[in-house]
Prior knowledge:
Shape: globular
Oligomer: single chain
Amino acid sequence: MDLEFSGEVWHWRGPSPFHFVTVPEDDCAVLRSAASLVTYGWGMIPVAARVGGTTWTTSLFPKDGGYVVPLKDRVRKAEEIDLGDTVTIRLVVDA
């Protein structure tokens, strides 16, 4: 399953601060249909992700009935992504 969408980068300031992009609701519905086949612990969904020319593996985090994509620091630095930027993300879920 391949998904591509754009979203704004936001920062979670919790005990482990991190930057995320929220997956749009329509794409979350598609992900939920495949989640039972690929999820591991706490509803995490492993994916291959790409922003610009940078690819990495990560897991989607469930949040408020949807999913968020964590953006690693190395990805943000390589693509010069700042808080509040809108980025286009491609996700590949091997379901």
